[in-house]
What does this fold into?
Amino acid sequence: MRRADHDDILPIVMCGDPILRQGAGAVGRAALVSPEMVHLIAQMRSTMEAAPGVGLAAPQVGVPLRLAVAYDGPEHWGQVPKADLEARERTLLPFTVMVNPVLTPIEEAGYASFYEGCLSVPGLTGVVKRYRQVTVDAWDETGQPYSRTYTGWAARIAQHEIDHLAGMLYLDRVRARSISTVDLYAQRWAGREPAEAAEALGFEL
Ligand code: ZN
It folds into this structure.
């Protein structure tokens, strides 16, 4: 896939816009390989990279299709304390395109409660309890089906992005009393156990 230039960075739809609350429609196999869709996926990639973010769903750029992109790697970890990376099981997630994804939780692997954020909800972060491990069945950008199991932070990204395709935001799942500005989070809670925030702020993990 070609790397798009910065002319391809799209505006991100902000929370409050009904586009983020409407479910997205399936992508047809023929439409997926059309020049328009190839371009859209390249634009989503450059928009995610520029933000910067670790995931972006098509409704976030105003396109109501079941399509999302994700990537997590060292470029995003500079400001993250090592203890946070380890606790979150945050490891390399190669650039991934999820077309028409279906998510299956692996409940036996348990749950993880951590702060997360969203490019459509700037300036805030909050604790969300997610499945620690999930399987995603989807197509890649060529229409090739895959079934991949993700653990830790990659599983959280997949759950967050696939929620977007159903018109959901992390705000629907967040522990409301955990909500923090990103600045306050960086000053006070980064590098600390979410349990400490839960105790101090009065929410359950
Ligand atoms: Zn989001």
